[in-house]
Specification:
Layout lengths: L1 H11 L25 H34 L15 H29 L7 E8 L2 E7 L3 E6 L28 E4 L4 E7 L4 E5 L4 E5 L5 E5 L5 E7 L11 E7 L1 H11 L3 H26 L1
Parallel strand pairs: 1-5, 4-10
Antiparallel strand pairs: 1-2, 2-3, 5-8, 6-7, 6-9, 9-10
Helix pairs in contact: 2-3, 4-5
Length: 291
């Protein structure tokens, strides 16, 4: 399991050299995916912080339970004590949890404030959940909208996505949600039929998609790559087949993709993938020359 997790982290570190070695689930994964946004970095930090409270409290309670079972069992303590009050214990078990809750609440509120106080958005995209796929509409001068469906195994060749490591089964899609790196993207989330949920673990976002209502979330990706998420609300029989794929690219590549996508999304995606592959090959050649 350790080797699997190490491989996932190593893959994340090579984002610039491959179009798909970004954050995605790995076998036997026990923790969060590597953070790709500042918010997710804060979430991972808050998780590590809370463990400093959870682990000692759990061990302390376990020790108390073992102590009570051994010392006050019927064989060792045939005559139970009649003591019903202890002022010191009552003060400790009242003030102790208060102090612990305060220590947890302050960083928790700071994290919530950061999550729900987005900076001014560079781009706004509307994500609509359908049974069972996602639709995206870019709120830009160019009218760009498309549906994003799970990639079928038989369609891999047609979309030039035969690499299963890059485009994993049940997570890859035909048309990715494309955004530029280092830019704030506001996502307006809604649904057309039933409840869905737009979730991207590496970005630290999860927002319910409610029919007739617009919910808002945001992210600013720190590194290029292809990131995977899924609908996280039980939405019917094909709930498990409703993935989300976000491709983060350089600003110039995004501008070229956006201009081309106004006429033909699939052609724009092919051109974008070709440009990314060409850059990756250039990086490999440069690395070989240095060696």
């Amino acid at each position: 399991m350790t080797n699997k997790l190490s491989a996932g982290l190593a893959a994340f570190g090579t984002l610039g050299a491959s179009p798909a070695l970004a954050a995605q689930p790995v076998d036997w994964q026990m923790g969060f995916q590597p953070a790709a946004t500042g918010i997710m970095t804060q979430i991972r930090g808050f998780e590590a912080y809370t463990l400093w409270f959870i682990v000692p409290i759990t061990l302390f309670v376990l020790v108390l339970l073992v102590y009570v079972m051994v010392k006050f069992r019927a064989g060792a303590n045939p005559t139970p004590s009649k003591t019903s009050h202890n002022s010191l214990i009552e003060v400790v078990w009242t003030l102790g949890p208060v102090v612990i809750l305060l220590a947890l609440a302050i960083p928790s509120f700071n994290l919530l404030t950061a999550q729900y106080s987005p900076p001014e958005a560079d781009y706004t995209v509307k994500a609509t959940g359908y049974q069972w796929y996602w639709g995206y509409e870019y709120q830009t001068d160019s009218e760009v909208s498309f549906d994003s469906l799970m990639l079928k195994e038989g369609d891999r060749a047609g979309y030039a996505k035969e690499d299963v490591a890059a485009y994993p089964r049940l997570l890859a899609v035909d048309n990715e949600f494309v955004v530029p790196v280092g830019k704030t993207v506001r996502v307006l989330v809604t649904a057309a039929d039933v409840l869905h949920s737009f979730a991207m673990p590496a970005f630290g976002i999860k927002m319910d998609a409610v029919p007739g209502r617009l919910n808002e979330t945001w992210f600013k990706a720190d590194a290029e790559g292809l990131y995977y998420g899924q609908c996280s609300e039980l939405c019917g029989k094909d709930h498990a087949f409703m993935p989300i794929a976000i491709r983060v690219v350089a600003q110039d590549k995004f501008d070229a993709w956006l201009a081309a996508a106004a006429d033909d999304v699939e052609a724009a995606n092919r051109n974008l993938m070709a440009a990314i592959d060409a850059d990756a090959k250039s990086v490999d050649v440069a690395a070989n020359d240095k060696n």
